């Protein structure tokens, strides 16, 4: 696999010819075998996906370790179904996940367990009903059109960091659709704070690997800690204000009014803040990254970009996109799905085996660290044809029929699958269609594209591109 720069073209073919070889985008080159201990340790801190050996991309599972600690990389869909769905109680989230996420998200939906998770999930679910999501589409389109207008003011040939631009758009969408505008939250400032957190406290540190006390994570990442303090203060102020105001019918109100039907418990200010930070942070990050990688792929494959633009014009002309338009943008959706396959926003999930159990025909011992390497699963030799190639056709109806549900996990899987997945996909399609209709973005041929994993997977150093207005 290539590690940076432009696409390596296998041949120049029409984008309509799904049987011909397709271009290979930048990715990670896996080592042929497990790295030596200290090299692997460094990679776990620097960029964990670069430590996964080639076997993770080729075999149903990859196991290593000794009597003290066992590790299992699970890639077989039947095994994943057991881990994430059928036997999920035997595979709870592990202590490493909690060390990384709980300082920011507390006891919110992403980090809660058991009944605490179930009642919070029930509380948030109405906000993501299909009718509510459909009603949000005009606000999504408006945010994309506002960004396009800002780009026009910058002018032809302007240099943009697409990663930053997509973060700003999707952050605004979350505020407009879920938080009724989110008064008091400074979008650029909050987006910077989230980036600061993800680039520091959002990754595995030496303190985690050595299991030092949690406070040492803060000592090693003061920038991330300051960012987190400021983010929490912003949301706390919004919660305090909304407690005093009449209801608006948005997600904030749903969470404030929610009550556990078994215990009668309601969300106090701390739990409400934890959940709002979850939706603000994770809710915009997934879509922003899907869009960032989509625009890179289209920038490097102009024929596919033109096909997207032609579809948008055929479906909507010059009009603002509605939900009905988005439902008809089938090829644009395939581009987003393929971008999330090649560059999943969440490249890794992990679990801890809580009991001796069988998963996918394999006996897994209690105490085994189970890694679900989504980046590798999405490029697995046994699951995908031409797995490293960019080819939206693989998400057309012909190839999608019969694909195992657990071969494609951009939003996770099982009962804890992302609650906002339908919203995120509609949002990504509407924004991508609006931007591609109005602009073309050319990648910087001198910028190395290196996918780097923290909690999410971002392009290291951002994604500089040159604006060409249509």
Keywords for this entry:
globular, 19 helices, single chain, 3-stranded antiparallel sheet, 470 residues, disordered N terminus, 50% helix, 4-stranded mixed sheet, alpha+beta
* Number of E-type strands: 11
Q: Oligomer, anyone?
A: single chain
Radius of gyration: 22 Å
Helix content: 40-55%
**Could you tell me the mean pLDDT?**
88
User: Structural class given helices, strands, pairing?
Assistant: alpha+beta
SS strand fraction: 5-15%
Backbone shape: globular
For the terminal residues, how far apart are their CA atoms?
A: 33 Å
Provide the succession of SSEs.
HHEEHHHHEHHHHHHHHHHEEEEHHHEEEE
Ranges with pLDDT <50 over ≥5 residues? Answer: 1-18
Number of helices: 19
The profile of the biggest β sheet is: 4 strands, mixed
The main sheet orders its strands as 1-2-7-4
In words, what does this structure look like?
This protein is of the alpha+beta class and 470 residues long. Helix content is 50%, strand content 9%. The chain has helices at 37-46, 55-58, 77-86, 95-105, 114-124, 130-154, 162-178, 187-199, 206-209, 215-220, 222-244, 251-257, 269-300, 302-316, 323-328, 330-342, 374-377, 397-400, 421-438; strands at 61-65, 70-74, 159-161, 349-352, 357-359, 362-364, 369-372, 439-443, 451-453, 457-459, 464-469. Strands 1-2-7-4 form a 4-stranded mixed beta sheet. A hairpin with a 3-residue loop joins strand 9 and strand 10. Helix 6 (130-154) crosses helix 7 and helix 13 crosses helix 16. It is globular, with a radius of gyration of 22 Å. It starts with 36 loop residues before the first helix and ends with a strand. 45% of the residues are buried.
